[in-house]
Every structure is written in C-alpha cells, then in structure tokens.
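4.2 Preliminary Data

To establish feasibility before requesting continued support, the project team ran the inverse folding procedure on a target of 378 residues. The structure was first converted into the token representation described in Section 3, and no sequence information of any kind was made available to the design step. The complete token record follows.
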C-alpha cells in the first residue's frame, strides 16, 4: 500500500506514537484527518497538540475537500476509521463515503459497554452495522481483548478482527533518575493517575486500601474531576487522609516523574476502553494492578508486570494489593526487565504489527501475533 489515511475526531496523544512511527518506518505516505485539533474536554485535562512526526495532518476539512479525498482511484490507499457512528459526524460521513470506493477499509475501535438497557441497544446497533458493513471492511483493530470480543459478538468475521491497543511514546526519566529511584525508602508507594470520576473506580481503591494487612504504604493521587470533594470526604471517613497524598492535575512530565519512582500503579476502573497509563507505567519499569474492564489488562502477565482483578471487587483488589506489598518495594533488576519488555509496545513495534495486519488482510499474508502476546525469548 502506498498511502494510509486515518480518520479521527481529534488529535490524540494515544495514537501519535503509532502514526509518527508508521510515517517514518514505512515507505507509504501517512495522512491524519481530524474534525478538530483537540477536544475541549481533553484540553481541560491538559492535553496538547501531539507530535505526529512526518504525518500529514488535515484539521476540519470542508465537505468538498473531504469528498474529493474519497473520490477517484483509491486502490493503493488504506483508510482507517477510529470507530464509525460514535466518533462524530465527520468520521461517520467519511466512513459512509468510503464504502463506495475501491479503497481498503479498516476500523480502529474500542468495545462499548454492554451493561443495562443501553448496553443491549448498543450491541443490537453494532449487530445491525455488522450486517451492513462487514463484507466491505477489510480488517478491524479491536482495542484489547474486550474490543476483539465486542466485534466478534457483533457478527464481524473473526478472521478480520485483530487485537490492537493504544500506544504512547516512551516517558523520559526524571532528572534525578536513577540516583533516586523511589519516593520513600520505607513505605510502599502506590500511584493512581486518572480523573476522579465514578468510571475510574477511585472509591473502590480507597475501600480496598482500608483494611490492608500491612499499613506501610502511601497512595499518590494525580488527577482531578467531579468527584474530588467525595474523594477527600471518603479518605477522611476511612481514616486514610494521612496515607494519601493528593497532587491534583499535573503536567504529564511531572506525573510520569511520580510513576517512575513508585512501586506500583493501580488502575481500578469500572470501565476503560484501554488505559494508556498502564503502558506508561510499564515503560517506566513499574508493575501495574488493573481491573479486568481495562483493555490494557492485555499487557499484564499475572506476575512480574502486574495482575488483573475483577472489576468492582474491593476484596479482589485488596488481595492483589496485599500480595504486592508483601513482596516489598520494586528492585532495579525487575524494573529493568519490565522496561526491556515494554519495547514491544512502542510506536515502532505497533507500526510493524499494523503493517503485518494489513498484509494478512489484503495481500493474504500470515496472520500476525501481537508483539505483546508473544512469549519472551529465553
């Protein structure tokens, strides 16, 4: 293929590593078309325009320009859409226009929540879309095993559904690394990075911490949100105020500085399509405990890199935390092994895997194994 065109609602730091690496490593031209530069709610979280390297970026194309980009002979192009209906009118319109072209089509999307009546409706709509579009879509990049399962349950052809993820650039170590590798020499340092909103499960984490067998821990919380007052109140109710350090929202470099020096990152989400902070922690050499409703649970091995607990279960999370704390603070050798493993989730590795997916889907090459699922070489 001579050209890749990605259609997304906004510029995303979770895809800049992949696209910039693809634009550098392949001979193909890479174009990114977005409805707007950065969504307002993401700007409020501190997001900024990411670096996409050599990727050609088009922001807010006119209807005429969009139609012209999807006309003519597109047989050498692969158009990849970040979702379809739920990603805004621009992406949906472009997807519908692409169906009548001779371009190759891919979809890059998370699972949708299936709980409650709304979940049933989401699945029914997805099944309806599968009946309409599955014969025209060449491949689907399902975010995490949850995404893969969602598209298979929706009725898309299993051979066209590939596990995928989100990928971030390697965080830079803090200026004092490795001179000071930990936040404290005595306490087991746990870090939570995320919004204080119900979906992120911060309350599950606080309840799990309450009653741990070993009291020698400290929780570092980076983030803010609508639940901030409830968070402070619950800390007080559970007697955890002295053991929890709250930083509010921090620039990414400062947040990662805390992660680098922590012993464990916890992502207790009730639902997270992926959870890129898991990637970042592993790249910092820090193990992770996350719920089974996080797509990035795919990256954990149940041992050195971390473990997965049942979403919503305070007892399961408490048990996982007890195990981690009993093992003691992280050591340099373990951190270096985790960091070495994380090379398989860099943008370069993801770009190579994407090219293999395209080759398998379009040329008929061998179905690739995601690099994060491969067994490490002895």
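Position-by-position output of the design step:
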């Amino acid at each position: 293929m001579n050209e890749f065109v990605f259609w997304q609602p906004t510029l995303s730091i979770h895809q800049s590593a992949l696209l910039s690496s693809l634009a550098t490593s392949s001979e193909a031209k890479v174009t990114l078309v977005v409805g707007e530069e950065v969504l307002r709610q993401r700007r409020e979280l501190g997001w900024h325009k990411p670096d996409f390297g050599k990727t050609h970026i088009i922001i807010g194309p006119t209807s005429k320009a969009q139609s012209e980009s999807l006309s003519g002979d597109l047989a050498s192009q692969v158009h990849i859409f970040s979702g379809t209906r739920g990603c805004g009118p621009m992406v949906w319109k472009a997807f519908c226009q692409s169906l009548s072209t001779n371009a190759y089509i891919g979809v890059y999307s998370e699972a949708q929540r299936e709980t409650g009546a709304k979940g049933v409706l989401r699945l029914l709509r997805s099944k309806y879309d599968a009946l309409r579009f599955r014969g025209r879509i060449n491949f689907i990049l399902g975010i995490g095993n949850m995404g893969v399962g969602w598209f298979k349950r929706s009725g898309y052809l299993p051979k066209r559904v590939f596990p995928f993820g989100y990928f971030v650039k390697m965080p830079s170590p803090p200026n004092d690394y490795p001179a000071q590798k930990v936040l404290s020499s005595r306490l087991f340092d746990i870090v939570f990075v995320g919004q204080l909103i119900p979906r992120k499960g911060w309350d599950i984490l606080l309840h799990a911490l309450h009653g741990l067998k070993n009291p020698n821990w400290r929780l570092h919380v980076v983030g803010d949100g609508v639940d901030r007052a409830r968070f402070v109140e619950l800390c007080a109710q559970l007697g955890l105020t002295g053991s929890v350090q709250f930083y509010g929202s921090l620039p990414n470099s400062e947040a990662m500085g805390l992660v680098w020096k922590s012993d464990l990152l916890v992502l207790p989400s009730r639902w997270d399509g992926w959870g890129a902070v898991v990637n970042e922690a592993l790249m910092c050499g820090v193990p992770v405990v996350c719920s089974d409703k996080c797509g990035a649970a795919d990256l954990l091995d149940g041992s050195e890199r971390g473990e997965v607990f049942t979403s919503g279960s305070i007892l399961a999370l408490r048990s996982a935390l007890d195990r981690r704390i009993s093992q003691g603070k992280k050591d340099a050798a373990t951190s270096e092994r985790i960091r070495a493993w994380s090379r398989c989730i860099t943008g370069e590795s993801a770009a190579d895997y994407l090219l293999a997916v395209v080759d398998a889907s379009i040329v008929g090459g061998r179905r690739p194994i995601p690099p994060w699922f491969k067994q490490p070489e002895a």
